[in-house]
Design goal:
The structure is a single chain. This protein has about 425 residues and is an alpha/beta fold. The protein folds into two domains: about 300 residues, Aminopeptidase (3-Layer(aba) Sandwich), CATH 3.40.630; about 110 residues, Alpha-Beta Plaits, CATH 3.30.70.360. It is about 35% helix and about 20% strand. Helix 2 packs across helix 11.
Length: about 425
């Protein structure tokens, strides 16, 4: 069977399952879970893979699930990824009323598209000269640093990001390339963004340590840790004019603990922040300036500070070859999207880390209204959000794994890893 016929067959199969694909997305939307706690979503993935007859492994990086579809040969392995976790956005209409978690980043659409891709490819598995791994990955959102620190202390994880942990534990060993799709916020139109970059970052957790005292009777006996934190934020702001525009530095601290009681001088205040940038050199320079601002502000107030730096994510560099294959397949849809190339993104993603080891892509697709991570984020068009991404990924897999997996072999041979797995883990 030629590639065009294979593509028609998988698209027809995905169309046959489009209501089921949409129902998966809506069910996940109604049960959002934060990173490394996505147990209900993982169960839904397992149930769906089982119904398709795809064997899977679970418990990967705590909650991850991976099913494998085997073709007639094993010349290459391609991973199709969806992300399990939500973000905290308690004002979102679909948020969890206890945790505040909400799918305000569209990860529910990713899982639905990934599983939809699996449904389509099941119809042509015997024609593929390779294997396809369908990976539901945990904890892409690098949040709740204190909670993840506790997981590491208990020996459950080493890295705070899900794909980072999957790299460390060997889940990506033997996988030749990977793809996934992401929602493009505030884009209800039928548009496809390919080949864009994103920022890397280092994460920080800062404890400001002062001295407690009665806030009214004896404030002079205390050292106000909250004042130290506020002064530190102002000192960080004062550094912003020193950042070059092309480095795209982003720093956005939050206070996660601002004190214990209103009538006690705060003796311990905790801040979390990222320092993002377009290159590792820019991140390092900005990170040093932030640390200096924190140290200086703490000294001025008479407080102490403890700064913990955590490995964040690397800047995203996507495979040009994979991006073009994906874009070409998008134009085979009955209603092809407008393709927009090379738009930089100032957010960060852990698939950027994987891109230092193997070829990867994360196209951004329209069909959504509202800004990402906001209360008004929602699906505008279910076909654009759920069904079309499944079709394009399935057709891309066919290009990679048919005809002796020539497409995958060509992509793999043109790729030069920037790091080995060992270098990545130890860097």
């Amino acid at each position: 069977m030629d590639k065009s016929e294979l593509k028609r067959k998988v698209c027809a199969e995905i169309d046959r399952h489009k209501d089921e694909i949409g129902a998966i997305a809506e069910k996940i939307l109604a049960s959002p879970e934060m990173g490394y706690r996505e147990y209900k979503t993982a169960e839904l993935v397992k149930e769906t893979l089982s119904s398709l007859g795809i064997p899977y492994t679970d418990g990967l990086a705590v909650t991850g699930v991976m099913g494998r579809l085997s073709g007639r040969d094993t010349k290459a392995r391609v991973a199709v990824i969806g992300e399990l976790d939500a973000v905290t956005c308690s004002s979102h209409p679909k948020s969890d009323r206890i945790s505040g978690a909400a799918h305000a980043c569209g990860h529910n659409a990713q899982i639905a598209a990934m599983l939809g891709c699996a449904m389509g490819l099941m119809a042509v598995a015997g024609e593929l000269d390779g294997e396809v791994d369908f990976l539901a990955a945990p904890a892409e959102e690098y949040v709740e640093i204190g909670y993840r620190e506790s997981l590491r202390e208990r020996g459950e994880i080493d890295f705070f990001g899900g794909k980072q942990e999957l790299i460390r534990t060997g889940v990506f060993d033997g996988i030749d390339m990977a793809m996934m799709v992401h929602a493009q916020g505030a884009t209800p139109e039928n548009e496809l963004y390919i080949g864009g970059s994103s920022l890397g970052f280092v994460a920080k957790k800062i404890d400001f340590i002062g001295k407690a005292a009665h806030a009214a009777a004896a404030p002079h006996e205390g050292v106000n840790a909250l004042n130290a934190a506020m002064a530190a934020m102002m000192c960080i702001h004062a550094q912003r004019e020193t950042f070059r525009d092309e480095d795209r530095i982003r720093i956005h601290p939050i206070i996660t603990n601002g004190g214990e009681l209103v009538n006690v001088v705060p003796s311990r205040v905790t801040m979390e922040t990222y320092v993002r940038g377009a290159s590792l050199e820019a991140i390092s320079d900005a990170s040093e300036k932030v640390d200096r601002a924190i140290d200086g502000a703490s000294y001025a107030i008479g407080a102490k500070c403890e700064i913990k730096n955590y490995k964040g994510y690397l800047p995203l560099i996507q495979s040009e070859e994979l991006s073009e294959i994906f874009a070409e397949n998008s134009q085979l849809l009955d209603n092809p999207p407008r393709v927009i190339r090379g738009v930089p993104m100032t957010a960060s993603t852990d698939i950027g880390d994987l891109g230092y080891l193997i070829p990867i892509i994360q196209p951004m697709m329209g069909g959504f209204v509202g800004s990402l991570h906001s209360a008004d984020f929602a699906v505008a068009d279910k076909i654009l959000a759920y069904v079309n991404p499944a079709k394009i990924m399935a057709m891309t897999v066919i290009d990679l794994l048919s005809d002796g997996a020539k497409g995958a072999i060509a992509v793999k041979e043109s790729f030069k890893p920037r790091l080995t797995k060992e270098e990545y883990i130890n860097c």
